[in-house]
Design goal:
Number of helices: 6
Order of helices and strands: HHEHEHHH
Number of strands: 2
Shape: globular
Mean pLDDT: 89
Radius of gyration: 16 Å
Strand content: under 5%
Oligomer: single chain
Length: about 140
């Protein structure tokens, strides 16, 4: 099996500690068809968001969000604001990462409630598309 076909071991341990069994999850490539099917698309930074919209269509901005804070309208992307680092490649002990990533688990819950209509109002990238276009889509 190709190592890219499995969830990173560190990510799997973090999810397991949160009570999520991702053992059957297999990463897949982004495609226009998958984006169209999705109810929401949550990106880990402005450059990823800009790249997604550039490559697969700006119409997806109506359901694309920045994971770091999908509930507000960004006014700036300076100083890596709204960028989320990937803990998969962090060598610190899982226990230490879990403390630092507790906000991420809470964000997932907030997003879930919002998608179910029981939480805050999500702000799609279509509300700040001009700002998104100012970010280099290959700067991640």
């Amino acid at each position: 099996m190709d190592p890219g076909d499995q969830l990173n071991d560190r990510a799997a341990r973090i999810l397991r500690a949160w009570g999520i069994d991702a053992s059957r999850h297999r990463p897949s490539k982004v495609s226009r068809a998958r984006c169209v099917e999705a109810e929401g698309i949550f990106m880990m930074g402005p450059s990823y968001l800009h790249r997604l919209l550039s490559e697969y269509g700006e119409d997806l901005a109506a359901k694309a969000y920045l994971f770091a804070d999908p509930f507000s309208t960004p006014v700036s992307f300076q100083h890596r604001e709204y960028a989320v680092w990937d803990p998969s490649f962090d060598d610190r002990p899982t226990k230490e990462l879990l403390l630092e990533l507790s906000w991420m688990r809470e964000r997932v819950r907030q997003i879930q409630f919002a998608l179910l209509g029981h939480g805050g109002q999500l702000v799609p990238a279509s509300h700040y598309l001009d700002l998104c276009r100012t970010v280099d889509p290959h700067s991640h």
